[in-house]
Fold this protein.
Amino acid sequence: MNIDDLIAIDVHTHAEVSCRDEPDAAWGPFEQAASTYFKTDKLPTIGETIARYREQRIGLVMFTVDSEFQMGVRRVSNDEVIDAARDNADIMLAFASIDPHKGAMGVREARRLIEQGVIRGFKFHPTCQGFFPNDRMAYPLYELIAGHKLPATFHSGHSGIGSGMRGGGGLRLKYSNPMHLDDVAADFPDMTIIIAHPSWPWQDEALSVCLHKPNVYIDLSGWSPKYFPPQLVRYANGPLKQRMLFGSDYPLITPERWLSDFKDAGFKPEVHDLILKRNAITALQLDRQLDRRD
Ligand SMILES: [Zn+2]
């Protein structure tokens, strides 16, 4: 990633539409409900997303979400995201997503992807994947991730996926209480953990875990900064100013909208650059990359 050319690094964007595979019809009702909830319309392809970010000189981390086990929806493949990152290495990093229910097969996939040397982290979605992050089932995967010094992002808080559907589409919010990540951060003290989103209705839990465990970061994606809970902004201006990361959750929120709302959301000028770029360099270990380049 050409860090010096970028105005910001967005650590949370989604690969929604494959350029290779037909969309899976099983995703249809969830997509429809989510676009009503988030008021989005047509979803961009991976290529369109990258072009948009390049135009704005914003670096991006992109991932798919593997919820094949619980939701029965075929994911956009990790390999496609990785190929896109390889072809757009100036601007894009790939995270992989593997449902921990896949057990040994999932660990094999993770190892294969890591050995290709392109992925820079992993993304988990406890609500869509239907697991508590501190479930021992996921630990072999974490051991592999921690062993390679890669970060792991976990969705936290409410989820737009399933919102308003009958029975919430069968998805359970309880899995995404960030307090479950406290165990993971204690058991894997050298693995960087990124709690994604303001964690409403558990914002204070997220702040507490982050304050207590130095390997924990918070990404500010999924909400316009206009609506951030006041304590989140207060901690971002104070004790957690080196632990907060810019993320949009694109395509659910555009980076343009996030960045323009961020300006007037009460963040002190001296933390802007930390949140927009410098903290991501540390969390994603892009400084390791810089070392190699020098
Ligand atoms: Zn997301």
